[in-house]
Structure formats: C-alpha cells, structure tokens
Amino acid sequence: MTYSSEELLPGTQRALLHRIASAQAEGRTPSLVAAVQRQGRIVWNGSRSCVDGHAPDSDTQFRIGSLTKTFTAVLVLRLRDEGLLDLDDPLEKHLPGTGIGGVTVLQLLGHSAGLSAESPAPWWERTPGTLRPGLADVLGEQTRMHPPGRRHHYSNPGYSVLGALIEAVRGASWAEVLQREILEPLGMRRTSTRPQAPHAGGWAVHPWADAMLPEPAEDLGLMAPAGQLWSTTADLLRFAAFLVEGDDRVLGAASVEEMRAPSTPSKFGPGEGAYGLGLQVVQKSGRTLLGHTGSLPGFLATLWFSIEDDVAVVVLTNATSGPLVGTIAADLVEIVAEAEPRIPEPWRPLPEADPELLALTGPWYWGTHPNVLRLTADRGLELGPLRGDGRGARFVAQPDGTWTGLDGYYAGETLRVVRDVDGRVSHLDLGSFVFTREPYDPASAVPGGVDAEGWRGLGA
C-alpha cells in the first residue's frame, strides 16, 4: 500500500486554524499568517486579520528580522566551502582594523565571540543605518562583554561584522551576494531587502488599549545582515526545504547539516536550547526544532522545522509585541506531528552488499560492552551499543580503507580494521579503542593483555 499526502486531514486543518485564530485574537495583532510544509510541499495555509477581506496570504511580505541571520550564515559557509576562508580563521585575517580581529569566524556565527548584544544608541532597529556609517559605529567602544569562545551571548553586531566579511571576500555588497547566491538559485522571488507589494505594514499595539501606532521601516545599513529581510511564508518554506536537504547550487547537504549542530551551549541551559551556525536549536515536547525567530519594530517571525517529523512551519505577524510566534509555530508543528505522524519510508535492501564488509557486521565488544556494527549505504558503517545508551556513530568510507566518524562520540575519529599475519580480521581500532569479537578476546591485541587463566567464577 502506498501513501500520498495531498493535504492535511480536516480535523488537523481545523486545529491549525483554531491555534492561529486564538493567537491573533489573544495576541491582539493586526494580522497573522502561517503555513505548513510536509514532503517538500506546502500542505496548509492560514491567516487572520483585523480587517475583513484583507487577510494576508502566502505571497504577502512581512519583515522577518533575525531570520536574516540564517541567510548570512549560509553565505559565510559558502565562502568556507570554496576554500576562501576557514571557520577557525581570526577575523583579522580577512577584515583587518575592526578592533575585534582575534575572534574567529566560527565564534561570530555561533554568537560565542563575546561581543555586545546591540550596537550603541540610538536604537538601531528604529533608526536609519546612515547613523552607523562604519563598523566602529556598529561595534562601539565596549566591544567585549565576555571572553571569546566561553559562552553563548547573542550579538546583532556580530552578524553585521559577518556581512562586512562577506563583502570583503566577495568584493560585492551583502545584498548583491545574497540575491545572486541564495535567492535566485532557490527561486525565492518574494524575498528582498526592501518591501515589495503586497506587503504588510508594521504596527505597535498599545499594551492597555485596543489602539495602534505605525512603526517605521528603516533601512538598517551595515546592520542589514542581522535583520533586514522581508519575505513570505511560501519563500521561507522553500528556504526550510533547503536547510533540510541542502542544494548543491547553494550549499551541500553536509554543510547545512553542520549548520544544524549546536556550536556552543545556550544561555538557556542544557537541554533547553542551543545555537548552531546561524540556526537556533530548541527542544519542545520531546522533539528537536531548528530554525530561527525574528523581530523588528512592527513585525515578529518564526521558522521552525522538525527533520524527524518532516514538518516545517512559518508564522509571520505585523505587531511589535503580543503574539508569541515562536511558541505558536512550535504548537503548529506539534499539531501536525501528533495528528498525522510521519509515515516511514518502505524498507529496501542495499543496492549491493560487499561480502567483505558484510563479514564485519554484528557484535563487537569494547572490553565487556557489547556493540553492534551495521552496514549502511555507500559502504558506510554504523556502530552503536547493543542496548541502552552509549557511545556510537556513523562512519563514512575513505579511499585508504578506513572510515571516519560523522557524528556522536566518535565524530572525526578513524575506524580501522586490523588483520593478523594471515589476513584474518583481528579487531577494530577506533581512536585507540580495541573492539573484539569476544569480550577481552585473548587472540586479539587487547591493551594490557588478558589474564592467561581466562574467565572464572567466584570460587576459582
């Protein structure tokens, strides 16, 4: 039996509509638009508005604030993949004279450079970028709030610096590079640095009265890489699909996976949230959500996606405060994931099974700890504990006959098959750990040797 998801079930759709309707009413926002994507296609759109007949749709632009940072991070990773910089490079190597040249590109991407959270007054989000003509005006005099690399401290100026880095290496403006290297290849025609009709207007809603005040929509100048963009739910879901699968025209799958891995602990504490390379990583109701939140005066935005559930959600609204769009988006993911769990792909055998690799599969022991080695696609291997939690990893084959760890405890470590003089497999060597076919196999090169009398009972 095959499975096709043309649209969500009516009950799921009503639950989604109820959630955003409640959010618009309780959050007292002029309008709110949301969309859900599964299997790479949009399966639901919904919106609410305070003006009858003028509800936004998937083509209506809203300002997305700090969601812009994810785009900037993609551009930096492209430079790395092209060999134009290394993430461990000090900033000074590519952008001298900033006064913060010792911090690394990686630290800037993950908000661990120790820089201040905001630029000096006046409030950069509500004033024109012409007030900050140079990086010195963005960074201010007190550039270091914490020692670099020691903790997560969110920094808007840090992403302004990354935008300047992109411009220095590319020899073109951040906006031009963004358009050429991300927006055009991904077909994001409704994402731009300035609003393009149809677009929502930004509003502040009085906290104690049902009254509104228009918010200014400033060009942020050098701060643009931290929060300038306008976009739509349809475009942002295209971006979400890219952040899951990668796209060789923009950034390969391995690099977007790298973006999703936490780079430093979050200020929220272990288990609650972290920050990758331009992506937030949060835990909600037992599932991992990736994406980014965003806000600028007059607008709130969130993109969350769950790889395990194959659900991506965008929520956009045009109010300075009120609706908790991060929570709303997480709730929409949960509604879909719980009501319509992802249907697993059919099991299929490998295209081919190398007999020599097949002979390596099965149980292996690190000391007395039982582990299982499995064969995966493309001559890959996967090692993990036989039961319970423990150290494990996926491994990718290398031309010299070894394997390199991709994740987990053994990420980056080398797995070698060690053979005895007659060519038979003796043991596995993994970062100096010896894995044998039997617990402390006396026929293998177990560090420290094995007691000659072997295993014994209490009375021996």
Automatic annotation (TrEMBL):
GO molecular function, a single term: hydrolase activity
The EC number(s) this enzyme carries: 3.-.-.-
Transmembrane regions: none
Residues covered by the DUF7586 domain: 354-437
Keyword Hydrolase part of the UniProt annotation: yes
Residues in Beta-lactamase-related domain copies: 20-333
Source species, domain of life: Bacteria
Short name of one Pfam family: Beta-lactamase
Keywords per UniProt: Hydrolase
Protein's recorded name: Serine hydrolase domain-containing protein
